[in-house]
Design goal:
- The relative contact order is 0.08.
- The strands form 3 sheets. Strands 6-9-10-3-11-12 form a 6-stranded mixed beta sheet.
- Helix 4 runs antiparallel to helix 11 and helix 15 crosses helix 17.
- The longest helix has 50 residues.
- The chain is elongated, with a radius of gyration of 36 Å.
- Among the domains are: 309 residues, ABC transporter type 1, transmembrane domain (ABC transporter transmembrane region fold, Up-down Bundle), CATH 1.20.1560; 70 residues, Rossmann fold (3-Layer(aba) Sandwich), CATH 3.40.50.300.
- The two termini are 71 Å apart.
- It is of the alpha/beta class.
């Protein structure tokens, strides 16, 4: 928790004002019982009305000061707490966006959402309480205790009894509920995870008629969370009757002891009244502290979860500035590159070497799990190669600053990802300053203009979160248009044509050809029709390169490529293809 207090640093002057107003409130409030004692002892008992009026007006002034100071204290504590949580959310969000794929695998999406929302809300609440109580409560407690002893030293033992009772009850409650808070946050994560999974995969759930199974799964976690919450609330609710018993007990003791002392000296009435109020202040202070210390473990669990994210050391580091001068002509080169996932013993990629030149299309094909997507994910450094070198424009990718590297690349992932906004905002996502003409040109090349014009509003049409209001093929075409609009040096299409029909696929690649004459094009595909016209095709099998060449060259000498092609053609088409190869076509 202490590590997160650094986020209060920008608001030090507001914290200072809060402290000053808190001290003013405590001082003004603690003067009231002493003045009341003076009114009783020096005014009412002897019948001195001048003393009553003088002390009474002074009490009104102190009440006004206390109220104004309390307002300032509450205002600043709420404001600082809100700004603190805002900055903390921004820091967590920025940190998550900086994660590479390896870092992200350490956290589930549901857990990151819960940490950014629920956990930060818990921390904000405790920070607000700390700012408003951590100074006020100890001051009330210490000064109230001193003034109570000065006012009626014969009754001071009552305060000790009350304090011990409050501390013991709070410690017992804390010991019972403290360990449960970590379990509680874990169940919140699980509820978020199940909800997110089912909302994302609702079509699959319905298609397999598994609504009851998913409801049963959710109910189990929901019931576990409810039982735990009820248990925690029941224990915490014990605090109120315990505190009432302690309060009433101390009040009864004050009255009993005070009345016995009044029998000896009636002038002790004012002191007894003041002492009772000081006891109330002290007891309320301990009550506030006990409430805060009961809530602190829950916030501390949340703070640990937030710190886990913020203190995660990035495994991939970029230099601040690019080291060296890249070649003017774009290229991507792999030199004996190996890759295996952290903790895994088997290599996903083994001894990969090739060079992709500007103006050429390099395609990657292979069976599922052969390492195609992993290979192209090494180019933007989503993952780091285990060994070997990857060069872009003649420089090792580890020598590029993050901006220089990413600005060179236009990536279209396997799943078309769209963001809530408009068609235009999604297309120009990688090029915020793109003009309307550039956006339309990118859509034309991506074969997206026809369906865009049919949408209400055209390029201003609304796109729902995740692109749920457009089809899979439309989503892919908009993703392709986004990469084109960026006008990068390197195009990476990770199975980006899979949702397109053959005609649209062919038209798109034909329209794309003129604008990539000075760019490197890397294509991952499952369909032979998508890769057969590539300048070089790299065939992968279980992470190894088993073939490199053109379509015709690979059909002559690569058994794996032959198997892939044969599986996608009819017997007649296969015979025709092989006949053309034998005839030298």
């Amino acid at each position: 928790m202490l590590k997160l207090l650094r986020f209060l640093k920008p608001y030090w002057w507001q914290v200072l004002l809060l402290l000053i107003s808190t001290v003013a409130q405590v001082y003004a409030t603690l003067q009231l019982p002493a003045l009341m004692a003076d009114i009783i002892n020096n005014g009412i008992v002897p019948g001195n009305m001048d003393s009553v009026w003088r002390d009474g007006l002074l009490m009104l002034a102190l009440v006004a000061v206390s109220a104004a100071a309390a307002f300032c204290s509450s205002y600043f504590s709420a404001k600082i707490g809100a700004y603190f949580s805002r900055d903390l959310r921004a820091a967590v969000f920025a940190k998550v966006l900086a994660f590479n794929m390896t870092d992200l695998k350490n956290y589930s999406t549901a857990s990151l959402i819960t940490r950014t929302t629920n956990d930060i809300s818990q921390i904000q609440m405790i920070i607000t309480m700390i700012l408003s109580m951590m100074v006020r409560a100890p001051l009330f407690c210490i000064l109230g205790l001193v003034m109570a002893i000065q006012t009626a030293p014969e009754m001071s033992w009552i305060i000790v009894v009350g304090i011990v009772a409050v501390v013991v009850s709070a410690a017992i409650i804390l010991a019972i509920v403290g360990p449960k808070f970590k379990i509680f946050q874990g169940l919140i994560d699980k509820v978020t995870l199940i909800t997110r999974e089912n909302l994302t995969g609702i079509k699959v759930v319905r298609a397999f008629n598994n609504e009851r199974l998913e409801v049963k799964k959710f109910d189990k976690t929901n019931k576990d969370l409810t039982k735990l919450l009820i248990f925690i609330d029941r224990i915490l609710e014990l605090q109120n009757p315990l505190i009432n018993i302690i309060f009433n007990g101390t009040s009864l003791l004050c009255s009993w002891v005070g009345i016995s002392l009044l029998n000896q000296d009636f002038n002790y009435l004012g002191n007894m009244t003041a002492f009772s109020e000081y006891v109330t202040f002290v007891m309320i202070s301990f009550l506030m502290l006990s409430v805060m210390f009961v809530m602190l473990p829950r916030a501390n669990v949340s703070a640990h979860r937030i710190n886990d994210v913020l203190m995660t050391k990035e495994k991939i580091h970029f230099p601040d500035k690019t080291k060296g001068v890249p070649d003017k002509r774009s290229s991507v080169e792999f030199k004996k590159v190996d890759f295996c996932y952290p903790g895994a013993s088997e290599k996903v990629l083994d001894d990969i070497s090739f060079k992709a030149e500007a103006g050429q299309t390099t395609a990657f094909i292979g069976s599922t799990g052969s390492g195609k997507s992993t290979l192209i994910n090494l180019v933007p450094r989503f993952y780091e190669a285990t060994s070997g070198e990857i060069l872009i424009d003649g420089l090792n990718i580890r020598d590029f600053s993050k901006d220089d590297l990413i600005n060179r690349i236009g990536l279209v992932p396997q799943r078309g990802i769209l963001f809530a906004g408009t068609v235009a905002s999604n297309i120009k996502f990688g090029a915020p300053s793109a003009t309307a003409e550039q956006i339309k040109k990118a859509a034309d090349i991506a074969q997206a203009t026809k369906f865009i014009e049919k949408l209400p509003g055209g390029f201003s049409a609304h796109i729902a979160q995740g692109g749920t209001n457009v089809s899979g093929g439309q989503k892919q075409r908009l993703s392709i248009a986004r990469a084109i609009c960026k006008n990068p040096d390197i195009f990476i299409f990770d199975d980006a044509f899979s949702a397109l029909d053959m005609k649209t696929d062919a038209n798109l690649r034909k329209a794309l050809a003129p604008i990539v004459t000075d760019a490197v094009v890397l294509i991952v595909a499952q369909r032979v029709s998508t890769v057969k016209d590539a300048d070089q095709i790299i065939v992968l099998d279980q992470g190894k390169m088993v073939g490199k060449g053109t379509h015709q060259e690979l059909l002559k000498c690569c058994n794996v490529y032959q198997s892939i092609v044969k599986s996608q053609l009819s017997d007649r088409e296969w015979e025709k293809e092989m006949k053309g190869i034998k005839n030298g076509a």
